[in-house]
Amino acid sequence: MAATQEALEDDFTVVIGSRAYVLDGENDADAKDIKIDNLSVSAHGKELLKNASVNISLGKRYGLVGPNGMGKSTLLKLLAWRKIPVPRNIDVVLVDQEVDGDDRTALEAVVSANEELVTLRQEVASLQDASISADEDEGDEDEVGENLSELYKKLQLMGSDAAEAEASKILHGLGFTNSMQARPTRSFSGGWRMRISLARALFVRPTLFLLDEPTNHLDLRAVLWLEEYLCRRKKTLVVVSHDREFLNTVCTDIIHLHDMKLHLYCGNFNDFEVRYKQHLNKMNKKFEIYDKQIKASKRSGSRAQQEKVKDRAKFAVAMEASKNRGKGKVDEDAPAPEAPQIWRDYAVEFHFPEPTELTTPLLQLIGVSFGYPNREDFKLSNVDVGIDMGTCVAIVGPSGAGKSTLLNLLAGDLVPSEGEVRRSQKMRIGRYSQHFVDLLTMDETPVQYLLRLHPDQVGSSKQEAVCSELEKFGLPSHNHLTPIGKLSGGQKARVVFTSISMSKPHILLLDEPTNHLDMQSIDALADALDEFTGGVVLVSHDSRLLSRVSEIWFVENGTVETFHGSFEEYKDEVVKELRAEVDD
Fold it and tell me: Which PANTHER family does the UniProt entry name for this protein (predicted)?
């Protein structure tokens, strides 16, 4: 791990301004906050932060937001690696990768995260062995006994007796059954190992907790449990997430990474959106005034007048920055202020084509049962569900209950052992799998891939038609001829959504479609599903998306039942159960 970290650290250039708080000395022993002042960061030659400043206060929960690729994950890494000065008394844990798979059980892996606890237990075991061999020497036996007594006291203060119970409780909240907790970590998929990494961090309870997209690997119930758990913590949290409802529930403050600066907003994400729009309008109004003054001075032909306008604008920017820092006067050591700039908001739109009308029902499972040959503990039985035009369904239930299996049965990727599947002959299905990367051809460009899958494109330039479709889903033109293997997860997802749209589907079957999307794209997808007149079946942990559905199928214990109520009512029921568990 260390070698990998060192290699990654070499890719970054970090510069802290002259007024940075240096927190490596004795004076930081009682520091509670992290003060970032005039921070500049470059990665792979790209400038991510420029003279950025923000304070991270003890006990607050910050959501770090902004478009993809702007440096949010980099900022978390720099805090975790202490490239940004962090007081020595503040312990930091970053959760951004899965735990290594080995023969330890999931429960053992979580408990072992508390290295001090593990070391003390090993010392006790060693001294107990020593006490057996010291039976014949009374002096040695007394010394061993005293040492053991001291270690027992330390273990008691650390809550050693309750450690396994606490670790088990956290794992259960994240979806691990008792049998799963006893399985070796190497037997779990990457998504479940990410949950183990998250459980380890929750177990050690660091003063500064850094989370990078924690909900991507969780089902809805685990997301709601994590929200409840984090809200009860009294430590500091910085989380990167594109889950709007998660940020609304958990965060007390929002840090917005915009234009290489860090802007702090009090309140949750909804509060931030209101204040950000006000701030955006204010900044653009200042730019309009400045732009008019510059143009007027240019018409006058006076270079001195132009410089005067620029200096006055820069002074105003410097004064406002100083007021925000609580000084009330221009800081002579601060970086030179810049003239007002126009603030451009990032936006994207998704659209699926209007499907042709087909007679109903489009898709039905009648008395369907299914089980995997190598899993005697799993089976779906007597499933009766149907999809028509205009149907919008969410599949919910515990992890491993069979949500994705049900989706695969609807898609025809799995064949039932019993029952009947009825499909309209002319029906087309748009399928989004959470493992969509396995279906992409990495050495093809998006244009090549889509032309191969959809050769029926019309017009004088088929390539232009495909490029037009890709742009509709927010893939920049310079990526259209880039090999898919070199695209980010979010960019690959846009290629998949473009392909789905080009297939002109009657039904959309979507399995965790938000995992690789930024917040603006998730909002765009939600709006696109609202306007889509075909059928939609959705498995997701994103409450914003799930709140749009008209029907809920609940999967548990091998059955599929319709939940008679809205998504908010279902969510309220789950939250009540989780609060009772957390309180227990």
Answer: ATP-BINDING CASSETTE SUB-FAMILY F MEMBER 1 (PTHR19211:SF14), ATP-BINDING TRANSPORT PROTEIN-RELATED (PTHR19211)
On whether both 86 and 146 belong to a single domain, the answer is no
Give the confidence band of 22 by pLDDT, cuts at 50, 70, 90: very low
Q: With contact defined as beta carbons under 8 Å apart, do 84 and 208 qualify?
A: no
CA distances 363 to 295, 457, 536, Å, are 63, 27, 11
Are 106 and 196 a contacting pair, CB within 8 Å? Answer: yes
In a shared domain, residues 407 and 259: no
Whether residues 260 and 296 share a domain: the answer is no
Residue ending a domain, among 345, 380, 413, is 345
Do 259 and 293 belong to one domain?
no
Q: Are 506 and 363 in contact (CB under 8 A)?
A: no
Phi, psi of 242 (to 5 degrees): -110, 15
Residue 134 Ramachandran class (φ > 0 left, ψ -120 to 50 alpha, else beta): alpha
- CA 533, CA 311: separation in Å to the nearest integer? 56
Kindly report whether the peptide bond that precedes residue 206 is cis, defined as omega within 30 degrees of 0: no
Is-contact 299 291, C-beta < 8 A? Answer: no
Q: Summarize pLDDT for 486-539 with one digit per residue, the tens.
A: 888 888 999 999 999 999 999 999 999 998 888 888 989 999 999 999 999 999
Measured distance CA(319)–CA(325) in Å, rounded: 10
Selection from 378, 380, 400, 331 nearest residue 174 by Cα: 400
- Find the helix packing angle between 220-231 and 190-204, rounded to 10°: 10
The residues with which 370 forms a beta bridge, in sequence order, are 380
| DSSP code at position 162 | G
Backbone torsions φ then ψ of 459, nearest 5 degrees: 110, 165
pLDDT digit string, tens, across residues 362-399: 999 999 999 998 888 889 999 999 999 999 999 998 88
Contact residues for 57 (Cβ-Cβ < 8 A; gap 6+):
32, 33, 236
Identify whether residues 426 and 324 lie together within a single domain. no
Structural domain contains residue 98? no
Identify the domain containing residue 149 by its residue range. 115-157
Residue 178 lies in a domain: no
Could you tell me the CATH number of the domain that includes residue 220? 3.40.50.300
Residue with the two structure tokens 């939940």: 563
Asked if the structure places residue 189 within a domain, the reply is no
The total domain count for the chain is 4
